Fold each of these.
Amino acid sequence: MKLADLRTPALVADLAALEHNLAAMAKALPGARLRPHVKATKCTALARRQAALGHRGFCCATLREMEGMAAAGLGEDLLLANEVADARRLGALEARVTVAVDSPETIDAAVAGGVPEVLIDVNVGLPRCGCAPEQAGRLADLARRRGLSVRGVMGYEGHAVGIPEREKRRQACEASMARLAAAHAQVGGDVISAGGTGTYDLNELATEIQAGSYSLMDSAYAKLGLPFQPACSVWSTVISVSPSFAVADCGLKALGMDHGNPSIEGARVWFCSDEHVTFEPERALRVGERIRVWPAHVDPTVAYHERLHLVEGEDVVDSWPIDLRGW
Amino acid sequence: MKLADLRTPALVADLAALEHNLAAMAKALPGARLRPHVKATKCTALARRQAALGHRGFCCATLREMEGMAAAGLGEDLLLANEVADARRLGALEARVTVAVDSPETIDAAVAGGVPEVLIDVNVGLPRCGCAPEQAGRLADLARRRGLSVRGVMGYEGHAVGIPEREKRRQACEASMARLAAAHAQVGGDVISAGGTGTYDLNELATEIQAGSYSLMDSAYAKLGLPFQPACSVWSTVISVSPSFAVADCGLKALGMDHGNPSIEGARVWFCSDEHVTFEPERALRVGERIRVWPAHVDPTVAYHERLHLVEGEDVVDSWPIDLRGW
């Protein structure tokens, strides 16, 4: 199939850029040094590529992602890097399953759900999930008393991964990891799971990095000067032109908007509506012409689409289902 | 099923509020005075309720919505209120199909696609699709020369529908409709299709109002003091609590974020991540507790979900597929 034959809007990935990103990360963090986060892509076909490059353990953000990865035969070592109040769906999986816990209630849920292994999730500065570092040892003791195997700790420095200046990013990461190290000293275990695309080569504590966005990248991370290439755009059709602006068929239901407007090469984006993007192009466009719209945030963009089309030049060489959507 | 048994995050609608909204609109704009826009809800089951109340014509924003409505037997009078560069999928439908056109190219597409009827789409002030009012007559002549039936004009005052003060909203609507009336004088035809939830009772020109959001409403429209009740929220589980904040399992992939953060009663929302909302509650919450998260913009929220669950008190009384997603 040709790119021109795709129905629009269509989520497309440049295969060469994607493969470059996967290879660059596999070289920097070989094998189990990377635990790819599937939330960014929600696609078992892409995860299979990562596994083929040596990364056999994955992390997920939702129960549906865990179920889908297990069903796809990618369950060698699955971490739900998130808290759940009901873990029964995890206990039913045919896979090695570890879940993050940060409270007595989530430990109860792991026990009740039949999940044998946990990581103690520690708040390292991002106000989201995770216990205070000084509570980690007590939670690990409780988990062990309840019969769980505590593999170690987890702590995501999400407030640091997007800091533009590399040295400041490193310092914020280091401060976070000091908190995680203190927790780990109380908890023990082999695993210190942390990091993301923005700190993949700055985090010196983590035994495994939880990066996901590096594979497709997005315009927010692209500003950091990382050695990964923007690979993911929404292929769109120009449906209306006027003397001062043009409109394409890619809107709020095809784009994650929390990081702001998408970008279009050679154009200034004005705004998006449900099924439209209005923009001011530098050159005259004609109705029916196709353009690439680059989402500001890939993760919630991918979650709107049924398929990711892989392209080489003008050819669509493969089409992968986004099969881990929903909950 | 009980509300407590729903997997979270889950899109829920309060059935009493939904029915109130549908009835209030049917009273204000009976029968063909309203052409409900299905883009807001993407749900044929909900559209069937609107049809049962007397609104037999609908408008859509995408080809998939048109196909789904036709397949559901709701094709008595379907308007694609949007431009397409390729209309062949429309021509194949077993339904009465009208498509908006705003250029010679989109007229060509209607002809080539076998779509017999069109509306001339006019830019009435929102820089999106639509021809300049002074071009409308020329386009109508062209369409008729090409063998198309021109039913009239369309012009969406999307820049006016959200103006907070009613009188200013009315004035902006009136100015837009003056442009549409000028175009209609050139074009002719029985149909003047315009309006939205914010101007449903202010637009005095339109023969039919294209409102959609009124059925579920959202927090942006709720500020206008309209007689419609917020009906749609995302039912979520608290998964982590700390002394100063709590976290629930409803994030960027469960919420349209272009209008900003969602709201939670009795709490201040701090921020959303992919699968989390962090917020500061007024009272202590416990892990496992369920809360309602109110999206700022319903349309792109609905598009993330597979089903809309209808609730009465603690009971889930029905569950409707969001069957018009995608393109």
Amino acid sequence: MSKTPVSSLGEFGLIEQIKTWVPLQDSDVLKAIGDDAAVFHPAAGAEQLISTDCLVEGIHFDLTFQSMKHLGYKTVAVNVSDILAMNGTPQYLTLALALPQKISVELLQEFYEGVHLACREYHVVVIGGDLSASSANLFISVTVTGYAEKNDLVYRSGAKPGDLIVVTGNPGRSYAGLRVLLREKEFYLSDPDNFAPTLDRHSWCIERHIAPRLRTGVLTWLKQAGIRPTAMIDLSDGLAGDLFHICHQSGTGAVLEELSIPVTREIRELADQFDEEAVRWALFGGEDYELLMTVSPEHRTVIEEYEELSIIGAITSEPDSLLLEEAEGTRTEIEKQGWNHFT
Amino acid sequence: MSKTPVSSLGEFGLIEQIKTWVPLQDSDVLKAIGDDAAVFHPAAGAEQLISTDCLVEGIHFDLTFQSMKHLGYKTVAVNVSDILAMNGTPQYLTLALALPQKISVELLQEFYEGVHLACREYHVVVIGGDLSASSANLFISVTVTGYAEKNDLVYRSGAKPGDLIVVTGNPGRSYAGLRVLLREKEFYLSDPDNFAPTLDRHSWCIERHIAPRLRTGVLTWLKQAGIRPTAMIDLSDGLAGDLFHICHQSGTGAVLEELSIPVTREIRELADQFDEEAVRWALFGGEDYELLMTVSPEHRTVIEEYEELSIIGAITSEPDSLLLEEAEGTRTEIEKQGWNHFT
């Protein structure tokens, strides 16, 4: 691949390129990339949503095993995920990038290919951003806007004692992917000449880590079924940490049933290889970008019908108490540990 | 000053602190910091504006001479400036920070003091953000929203041949401040023991560089005078670069009158000390965060009344042609050079 330095285009030339990489098609946008600010006509009768995330090389991603295209996809997905977790409709994105010299125009184009892919999948549009150089790492900051009718909004704070705790997909899968990638990286570094990666058979978890697909279908289905979750959050800190956010803001506690947590056979086998407990990967793994919600118990039968949803416990009245109920009925307190980047 | 490591609070503890540092008072905000996304009720009958900037240590700022409080102020100001340049009303902010270990809780609090100061001055409110660690530099990304009625919006693209080119304040002043700061840093590094900084007598330019105050009054005055600029941009790349943006997007050219560019005596004297031309500082200096606008010539007399405004030239019909008319009447082409971080 050729490596055109970003400096050869300059900031203005680069912005012209980006406009072609993420073309705009949205009749509510009066002005997108290219002025002091973007301008859009807000959705009628709705509240506006806005969320910001940053992704930092060496903290959130490792360019030795994350392609720029996947990184672009994930950048969009993790932020759109925040709007979905409010039960909102994502709409517009701005992207700020600080680029170290190693990022060529070609790598940047790959990144925007991933961004564009996710934009099409989740029906969002890039309408602005900022570009800078960086003397060290690649920094990405993304802001997403969206909208929702006031009565559709779901906050973290609405869980009630007795509510079912419901999760999409398989928490721990992203962390499983990360562990495989880190293991392969170690193999590679210890013996680069004889490195034969065995990533293909782990694509079930690696894909979740490097390019998580969001559960937009579940939200549509819930709406059609007339079910509005009482509280919702997306899984970025791990099941335990994110459930704690819901409990803390709702003034409640929770009991998780260990056997109900949808840990797949693959996750169990992989955790066994590392001599670790699969349930801990689900509880503390993070970056799953699944949806964790609480739902009134009257909807149990309907929820059980939907394959992507698992009922994994219930909300209790004891503030900030997180318990894990094991197979034999014993209940142990779950440590309040989540991802802490600041260690 | 004590130096509490950010890791001792963790991300969640830190967020609780930040909520007290930038308290929220805004009845249109349904949910601010603390959920997956912030929620606000959009201004009735108006278009929404959004703009993102990033500020990177070592590229945009130098912590050896920029205090965290000033940095916080500037972070907000440079982004609010983008909304003003659309002739809009700034409203909400999100802030994403990637913090290296050297940034203690106390330094972060100073940063937010500056943020809060600017928020009060420009009537904007922090409603969300993200925090991460950073293995190397401090990285700041800020997104601002605002609103404007469709007919009040001013784009870069509306300049017409014959329009007056009008600028607020004194372009080049921020660059003068930067040069003084860099000179003092050099003195310090060459002889730390005998360093006696002479910054006070240069506060007129240093302040513009480290904490630029925005010209909100001018916009109110123009509105009251019934004058709507035909095009507008804020000065971040220097007079030449930003005027070129207006010309390029308007399909026009421009002639600047060298004698009309409001270069103060202080800027001239300082440029002399460096054996450089003051007018080049104004044209290529950057980071002034003044407003550059084009106005229909019928408003000349009214514009001349307002002290903070200077008429510095006129728009021409020749696309992308930027000329400087010197005292004796000769016209020379202005180089199309602006700030290029990617060199």
